[in-house]
Amino acid sequence: DIQMTQSPSTLSASVGDRVTITCRASQSISSWLAWYQQKPGKAPKVLIHKASSLQSGVPSRFSGSGSGTEFTLTISSLQPDDFATYYCQQYRNYSITFGQGTRLEIK
Amino acid sequence: QVQLVESGGGVVQPGRSLRLSCTVSGFTFSSYSIHWVRQAPGKGLEWVAFISYDGSDKYYADSVKGRFVISRDNSKNTIFLQMSSLKPEDTAVYFCARDSGWERSFDYWGQGSLVTVSS
Known about the structure:
Chain A is mostly beta strands. Chain A is 0% helix and 50% strand. Chain A has no helices and 11 strands. By secondary structure, chain B is mostly beta strands. Chain A binds chain B through residues 1, 32, 34, 36, 38, 42-46, 49-50, 53, 55, 87, 89, 91, 94-101, and chain B through 35, 44-47, 50, 57, 59, 61-62, 95, 97, 100, 103-107, 109-112.
């Protein structure tokens, strides 16, 4: 299976900050990477698909980049609603795996 | 609007079976593949199983292979996850999620159904 490693595991930041979360794949997944946001007690919500494509309805302060094995999710200016846990997911084939998650908390 | 609603969760003893259902509305069910994803309490997301739009292709995580079976009834807009030989480590919230297709992401999710495996 392809292992997905996110860093950091926890990130403390303030409203208005620019933050970046990194996701590394154990082997190349081309651009078959998605990012999800999850709030406590809720289902995940897709933010980015195909590494850098913004899902319809998602604010433009979210952006994704990367290909192969290194990927990033950037939030350009944190808003109060953005404090949540973020997961990357690879979907190169039908052995889909998620990163362990990054908890974004208020500093 | 697109909706996925899971049902069938509950408390079950180790070694027993349970069947989850995911009933969908708001889109052409027979045109979309569906996944099950689970999340143990306080833990991350784990992909569990996939079924193609017509039921012809099915894939499973190694952790459930041989114990779980995914199926669908396109006449009832429903996906099933038959879980057998349940273990305490299968305790989790189980989500069904729609496969977005060429974008290869999960674009709509249900609210989840809690399965607790305990004696």
